[in-house]
Design goal:
It is built from 8 helices and 8 strands; from the N terminus they run αβββααββααβαβαβα. It is α/β, with parallel strands linked by helices. It folds into 2 domains: about 1-25, no CATH class; about 30-225, von Willebrand factor, type A domain (Rossmann fold), CATH 3.40.50.410.
C-alpha cells in the first residue's frame, strides 16, 4: 500500500505499524532557549523612540544569522512591555520558532505591536518579577533568559536587585540592553543591579543605535550565551 509522505510522517509521529514494521515516533527537537524580550515603555520613551525599539527588534529577528539560530534551536519567544509599578503585560505570548513563516509572523506582530503605557514611572524590579513568572508556560526549554531593555534606573516598585537574585537562584539568566543617551550611567546601573552573574549588558548609544545594538545582543545571547 502506498502512503504519501505527509501521511507517513503523521503515522511515524504516532508510532504505528506499516507493512509489519514498527515505525517509532519521530524524536521531537528540544526547545533550547526560552527568551523573554522585555521592552521599556515608560514616560521617558517617546513615540519615535518606541518605534526604534519595535522596528529594530523586528529587523534583528529577521536577519539571516539570527533567523538561522532561532529556527535551528526551536527558540520560544515572548515580548513583555513594562513601565511603572504593577504595569507590565505579555504583549505577545510565547511563540515557538518552528518555521520561517512562524518567525516572519512573530516579527510582523512585534512591528505592529501597540503600546500599552506611555506616561508612567520606571519599575525595573516589577518588570523582572513579571518576566520570571512567564517561564512557567515553557517548562521544556533548556535555557531561560530575560532580555530587558531600558533607558532609566528604577524610580518605583520592587527592588530590582532582589528580583535579579531571585532569578539567579532559579537558574534564569538576565541580560540588559542599556540605552545610554549620555555617558554610561544606565549601563552601570544594569551591571550593578539588573543582570545576573552569568549575564551581560549591551550598550546602545541613544535610540538611533538601538537597531544595531539589539542585533548584537541577540547574537551574543543565541550564539555565545553568557560570554
Amino acid at each position: 500500500m502506498w502512503f504519501g509522505v505527509q501521511k507517513m510522517w503523521e503515522m511515524a509521529k504516532q508510532g504505528v505499524m506499516i507493512g509489519g514494521l514498527a515505525i517509532l515516533p519521530a524524536p521531537a527537537i528540544a526547545c533550547k532557549l526560552a527568551l523573554v524580550l522585555a521592552i521599556d515603555v515608560s514616560s521617558s520613551i517617546d513615540a519615535g523612540e518606541y518605534h526604534f525599539q519595535v522596528d529594530g527588534l523586528a529587523d534583528a529577528l529577521l536577519s539571516p544569522e539570527i533567523r538561522d539560530v532561532l529556527l535551528r534551536d526551536q527558540v520560544a519567544l515572548s515580548v513583555v512591555q513594562w513601565s511603572g509599578a504593577g504595569e507590565h503585560a505579555a504583549a505577545i505570548s510565547w511563540r515557538r520558532m518552528l518555521s520561517g513563516n512562524a518567525l516572519a509572523n512573530f516579527a510582523q506582530r512585534v512591528r505592529a505591536m501597540g503600546r500599552k503605557w506611555s506616561s508612567s514611572n520606571t519599575a525595573v524590579g516589577d518588570a523582572l518579577a513579571f518576566s520570571i513568572t512567564q517561564f512557567d508556560a515553557v517548562p521544556d526549554c533548556t535555557r531561560r533568559v530575560i532580555d530587558v531593555s531600558g533607558d532609566g534606573a528604577s524610580n518605583a516598585g520592587m527592588n530590582a536587585l532582589n528580583q535579579t537574585r531571585r532569578a539567579q537562584a532559579m537558574g534564569i539568566q538576565i541580560n540588559g540592553l542599556a540605552i545610554d543617551i549620555m555617558g554610561r550611567s544606565i549601563t552601570e546601573y544594569y551591571e550593578r543591579f539588573v543582570i545576573t552573574k552569568n549575564g551581560f549588558v549591551q550598550t546602545s548609544r541613544g535610540f538611533s543605535d538601538y537597531p544595531l545594538s539589539i542585533r548584537k545582543k541577540l547574537l551574543r545571547e543565541l550564539i555565545k550565551p553568557g560570554s
